[in-house]
Design brief:
Layout lengths: L1 H17 L3 E11 L7 E8 L2 E6 L4 E5 L2 E4 L8 E8 L2 E6 L3 E6 L2 E6 L5 E9 L2 E7 L2 E6 L2 E6 L7 E8 L2 E6 L3 E5 L4 E6 L6 E8 L2 E6 L4 E5 L2 E4 L8 E8 L2 E6 L4 E5 L2 E4 L8 E9 L2 E8 L5 E14 L17 H26 L1
Antiparallel strand pairs: 1-28, 2-3, 3-4, 4-5, 6-7, 7-8, 8-9, 10-11, 11-12, 12-13, 14-15, 15-16, 16-17, 18-19, 19-20, 20-21, 22-23, 23-24, 24-25, 26-27, 27-28
Length: about 350
């Protein structure tokens, strides 16, 4: 027993000094190979293993089996927004008042015109939803069909819609305008100076939400007031997703990515791209997707994933950071200070005992 007790501190100390490589879960935004050149404007994930993305030229991509692949589209019009009700049903909207419906494994054309455009869609269920666009238009899906409903002054671009419930919804758009739905009609709720275009809204609850837009505009809703907050960028922001009241992401032009944590927004300093980002969708704190691209000859579509990766911690790299995000510590990292203290005490005890003998 005395022999074992003498070797314990030696073994512990050796482990700490040598530094057994330990798996460490980091999360970062990474480029994923996109099987398309058209720019992507919207991404929606049904789960960690299935999702959809839409964009220019009516392009539709399906994520399944760990990769993205083109899916048959019923339109060549730009698709601006996609929303899945479930893995077997969803909707996408776009230019020329295009609305397409996914059911039975097929996307089919539901509504089409040649004048105006849709920019956002949000479904509450398979029987209830809204689509918004320009100029000042909104369509309500109810009773199995899409019905045009007046929302705002003619000419006002409505960029994004988020429904908290069938009787509570928000639209953001041109001139910093924010509209509210009370279950009966849409009305102007606030206008945020200096009047920049607001491009995305995401509600955390009926009493809290966020909106983002041009020139880095960020607006926070704490019932009953919408107010601008400090932004770490002046780039135009296009899409927003809140994982919770304390965690969220926003993306914009030239590869800008913002992270909300600890009560403030900060610039994600290791963006993997300078492409314009138009959509972000988070499945959890450590799993999400973004889509975008860059105009050129030809255009370039791009997809990015935020996910954990396994890294090795060694004595020369004890604290590994990725993209400014703090690693998620494993058990060894957490216990190291205590093990070190234990080894010091044990060694001291052995020394004292030897001096006594």
């Amino acid at each position: 027993m005395h022999v074992v007790s003498r070797f314990v501190p030696v073994v512990v100390l050796a482990v700490l000094l040598i530094g057994i490589p330990a798996a460490n879960a980091d999360s970062e935004w990474q480029t994923v190979t996109a099987p398309t050149t058209p720019i992507l404007y919207s991404v929606f994930m049904v789960s960690s293993t299935e999702g959809w993305a839409v964009g220019d030229g009516g392009i539709i991509l399906h994520y399944s089996g760990g990769s993205w692949s083109p899916y048959t589209s019923p339109t060549t019009n730009r698709l601006s927004s996609v929303f899945m009700v479930s893995s077997s049903e969803g909707w996408a909207v776009g230019f020329d008042l295009t609305i397409i419906h996914y059911t039975g494994g097929v996307w089919s054309l539901s509504v089409h015109d040649t004048i105006w455009s849709f920019y956002g869609v949000h479904m509450l269920s398979s029987t209830e939803g809204w689509a918004v666009g320009a100029p000042g238009i909104a369509y309500h899906y109810t009773g199995g069909s899409w019905v045009s409903v007046g929302t705002a002054p003619f000419g006002l671009t409505c960029s994004s819609v988020f429904m908290v419930s069938a009787n509570d919804g928000w639209i953001v758009g041109q001139d910093g305008t924010i509209l509210h739905y009370d279950g009966t009609s849409w009305s102007t709720y606030a206008t945020i100076p200096p009047g920049d275009m607001l491009r995305s809204v995401h509600m955390v609850s009926a009493t809290e939400g966020w909106a983002i837009g041009d020139n880095g505009m960020i607006v926070h809703y704490s019932a009953p007031t919408w107010s601008a907050v400090t932004s770490p960028t002046t780039e135009d922001l296009n899409s927003l997703f809140m994982v919770s009241s304390s965690e969220g992401w926003a993306v914009g032009l030239n590869g800008v990515i913002l992270h909300y944590s600890g009560g403030s927004w900060s610039l994600y300093t290791s963006s993997p791209t300078t492409d314009n980002l138009y959509s972000v969708y988070m499945l959890s704190l450590t799993d999400g997707w973004a889509g975008g691209g860059r105009w050129g000859d030809p255009d370039r579509g791009s997809i990015f994933q935020y996910s954990e990766r396994q890294t090795q911690r060694t004595p020369s790299n004890p604290y590994h950071y990725v993209g400014g995000e703090v690693f998620s510590a494993n058990k060894l990292a957490v216990l190291s200070p205590y093990l070190a203290l234990l080894s010091v005490i044990a060694v001291a005890a052995v020394v004292v005992k030897r001096r006594k003998t």
